[in-house]
Amino acid sequence: MTESRTKLLVIGAGPGGYACAIRAGQLGIDVTIVEAGKPGGTCLNVGCIPSKALIHVAQEFETVTHAASGKSAFGISAEKPQLDFGKSIAWKDDIVRRLNTGVAGLLKKAKVKSVTGFARFRDGKTVEVETGSGVEVIHAEEIVIATGSQPVALPSLPFDGNMISSTEALALTEVPRRLVIVGGGYIGLELGTAFAKLGASVTVVEAQPRILPQYDAELSQPVAKRLQELGVTLLTGTKAKGLSADKAALVIKTADGAETALSADKVLVTVGRKPATEGYGLELLDLDRDGPFIKIDDHCRTSMRGISAIGDVTGEPMLAHRATAQGELVAEIVAGHKRAWDKVAIPSVCFTDPEIVSVGRSLAEAKAAGDVVTEVFPFRANGRALTLDRDDGFVRVIASADNHVLLGIHGVGAGIAELSAAFVTALEMSARLEDVAAIVHAHPTQSEAFHEAAMKALGHAIHI
Ligand code: FAD
Ligand code: NAD
Fold first, then answer.
1. What are 435-464's pLDDT values in tens digits?
2. CA 281 to chain centroid
3. How far is the CA of 387 from the centre of ligand 1 (A)?
4. 234 lines ligand 2 (CB under 6 A)
5. Cα dist. 55→127, 326, 422 in Å?
6. What is the C-alpha to C-alpha distance for residues 10 and 13, in angstroms, rounded to an integer?
7. pTM score, two decimals?
8. For 21, phi and psi rounded to 5 degrees?
9. CA gap 128, 356 in Å, rounded
10. Do the beta carbons of residue 235 and residue 252 sit within 8 Å?
11. How far is the CA of 316 from the centre of ligand 2 (A)?
12. Comparing C-alpha atoms, which of 398, 353, 392, 394 is closest to residue 371?
């Protein structure tokens, strides 16, 4: 057994934990980070990065498949495309490996001490880590819990064999012929779209009356339409009951109460994620909870002095960039800076086809808070969208009716994830419709739809 002391101990090296440790190191704090797996956490290893790599491969394959079908509007033809899925996965794994090495290097550059192993609390100032070379006891003045989240399993469908979570789905060595997905939210639809483009026959079973229920129907509708064009079967208002007796099919109960069995080679369960709060002695600290999550204040402090928590373990939205921003905040507070969580908005992007971008208040939230002015500008009136042969979707602005300050900006369109930067900048700068309308936007770009939506809300759009 070895013993060490540190000013700041971070448990978990996901986007929350590693950003916290790097920022603390930059600020000259003596910092140690403990990670049971690989640096980068869920996001880098089994989440954001590998899923976006797979989505890109699938899009490339679909483009060639479409050309080979003879339906290309551009006059491009191709022979029947072949997919070496093993190579696709190797390419994805190489990106993950490069980023793992990159994060480890950044931690080292910031003079962070990295310990590999599973950490357990002994008390609020002491943690023991099972490392490859024995137990290391670490005494810390401040501890940051950044343990992230894990996939939720349904009691009737435990992960096992062909019943998989997103982690196994991202490590498949071949494209399943028949893929049934339980849960039509972020992960189910991002991965479902990718596997459909790669040639799988995909069925989505969603309990709510429509897919992506976290967004309003206007935003989710173009995604539903495209999924149907890709041949994906959407069974909404439908619940998964369990496996058939021979384990070769998923028994579902449809909206009309009928029970049927869906044959499947793999069943991917994506019904949400839960905070990682078990197995590491958290119960010894008895921290206040916010539902299943660790409760924090606007400084990311928990109910125990000297212990902070960041990222997915602290609640919604469970997004990598929120975790990172919280991590930097905590490091700066530990360094003595005057900081508090004061963000106006955290952008969310759903990497479906088309992509959905949502920043700030939803339409319902904005309307509930007061009088609003809202307008949409459709991509069918946007030159760039037409040159991409993707005129589905729109940009929507919502502003306060009295002073025109923007409250929410949403969009749905092919490849519009990057517009999230313009949307969130406008909200953080308290921009008004007049500010966005007065800015010159480059032509031809999809971002002109944002400009035009603001002008339309002011009653003087040019292109519609
Ligand atoms: P995590 O990334 O979960 O990291 C926690 C780390 O703590 C893990 O590495 C774990 O091994 C370690 N750990 C836990 N307990 C201990 C312990 N006791 N001792 C030592 N180490 C421990 N978000 C986005 O913003 N954009 C996306 O496109 C996106 N795509 C996603 C796709 C998928 C398939 C999934 C599953 C998630 C996706 N997310 C996305 C969500 C994103 O991955 C999470 O919000 C983010 O990883 C949370 O970061 P975190 O630092 O809180 O925790
Ligand atoms: P989710 O909350 O996005 O979707 C879960 C879906 O499952 C919901 O639509 C819900 O109605 C449905 N559902 C729940 N129980 C069901 C049942 N018994 N039968 C059928 N449907 C059921 O959750 P997720 O897709 O697992 O993703 C988890 C989290 O990961 C997200 O909330 C998000 O925070 C994060 N994530 C983000 C991104 C991104 O930013 N692009 C991508 C993937 C994941």
1. 999 999 999 999 999 999 999 999 999 999
2. 28
3. 37
4. no
5. 39, 28, 23
6. 8
7. 0.98
8. -65, -40
9. 43
10. yes
11. 12
12. 398
